[in-house]
Amino acid sequence: MEIFDTAELWNRDRIEQTQLLRLKTTLGWARNCSFYRKRLDAVGISPDTLLHLDDIRHIPFTTKDDLRAQYPTNLLCVPQSEIVRMHCSSGTTGTPVAVCHTQNDINAWADLMARCMHMAGVRREDVFQNMSGYGLFTGGLGIHFGAERLGCMTIPAGAGNSRRQIKLIKDFRTTVLHILPSYALILGEHIREAGENPRDLPLRIALVGAEPYSAEFRARIEELFAMKVYNSYGLSEMNGPGVAFECLEQNGLHIWEDAYLAEIIDLDTGTPLPDGEVGELVMTTLCRRGMPILRYRTRDLTRFIKGMCPCGRVHRRIDRILGRSDDMFVIKGVNVYPLQIEQAIMTFQEVGQNYLILLENDGITDVLRVKVEIRDEFFVEDMRALQNLQKVIAQRLHDEILLTPRIELVENNSLPRTEGKAARVLDMRNKK
Ligand code: ADP
Ligand code: ZN
């Protein structure tokens, strides 16, 4: 195993000793804002009384609403003159949350991000094209600084504008991309429309994250471009990208435990779950001075993967994110995640790149409708073949979610698409 940082080689003891020390330091920093000082005093926790890592369970959770209520700068734990940058969440689910960083925070973040990229096989000789929106969104500057730290020639291409993206890839012989999963397939399509084969481009690796996608979706991107795709997870509250990343094994994402303390809890009771069980990821910063966050409820659902990773890194792995707890919808009493639907439909080779889940009510009962794009070469087939396909897709989904949806096959590229995070579910049940 080639490493970027010696912390990648730490064993469990070393990781936990460091976590305890850093957690105590973080509690000391957090007391510099009245929000955390009051909370910690209320439960009698201070750097001196916290003796074991498990004692963290006595600290109350921090929620997104807490962060919104402290907007814009009430959670600063250093004088504002120490802050060099602020970022916001992309606001996918409401009012944004602002996070402020000192110069050391920014440096530590760039180190973590460079460590992630290096783990996925990116090297200084690579040409890296960042297709993330720049600005407040952390996927821009966050990854940018990591790539520069690693020493890559870094192209801040920004989001969208496929024609320019393709030109940059060709002109500068880009080898590594950072791209949203939904946009990767759109970009591939544009390249094909221009009469070229995406597999002929010099691309070899893509860092893909910011929204949930299934293993089947990943396989499609890899196949389309003949490149390896590594899952990248992060959230603005925990800096942004660089929190957890896949290694060459592509089997779960290592969380950097020297920088974050991760827990997975039962959604309803808040108690920690054993490895392997799906719950909500809760995270604490261990290295952030400007604005520490304690026990943040990410609302992201995943599980710890049991056992050691063959790559040799001891930092724990989480499974790909199943979705946000608020993405889950309930239909006819069944809890469903968009990813379950994606997983099932993407196994059909006839299925194109995009799909849309519609929740409706026909006056009597709730109806789950799934619009599925079909590849051009299959759309010309006879009616009977298409009806049959409709039936088998519905059956496959029934096996997965125990409900029979109405499947509607639509032409390729006919569903709305965004260059930002994809909207997969449209709930129209109370809008009539
Ligand atoms: P917003 O919550 O407004 O989208 P962010 O830009 O901070 O704000 O996005 C972070 C969120 O994006 C995460 O909490 C998670 O829900 C989602 N996300 C990020 N990376 C991944 C990934 N690799 N897989 C699934 N979801 C992801
Ligand atoms: Zn590994």
UniProtKB/TrEMBL annotation:
Molecular function terms, GO-annotated: nucleotide binding; phenylacetate-CoA ligase activity
Protein name (database record): Phenylacetate-coenzyme A ligase
EC top class, as a word: ligase
Entry keywords, A to Z: Ligase, Nucleotide-binding
Gene3D superfamilies: 3.30.300.30, N-terminal domain of ligase-like
Pfam families in the record: AMP-binding, AMP-binding_C_2
Protein function: Catalyzes the activation of phenylacetic acid (PA) to phenylacetyl-CoA (PA-CoA).
Pathway membership: Aromatic compound metabolism; phenylacetate degradation
Catalytic activity: 2-phenylacetate + ATP + CoA = phenylacetyl-CoA + AMP + diphosphate
EC number: 6.2.1.30
Signal peptide (from-to): none
Domain AMP-dependent ligase C-terminal: 333-429
Subunit structure, as described in the record: Monomer.
Chain ranges of the AMP-dependent synthetase/ligase domain: 81-283
InterPro entries named among the record's database cross-references: AMP-bd_C_sf, AMP-dep_Lig_C, AMP-dep_synth/lig_dom, ANL_N_sf, PA_CoA_ligase
Family (UniProt): Belongs to the phenylacetyl-CoA ligase family.
GO biological process terms on file: phenylacetate catabolic process
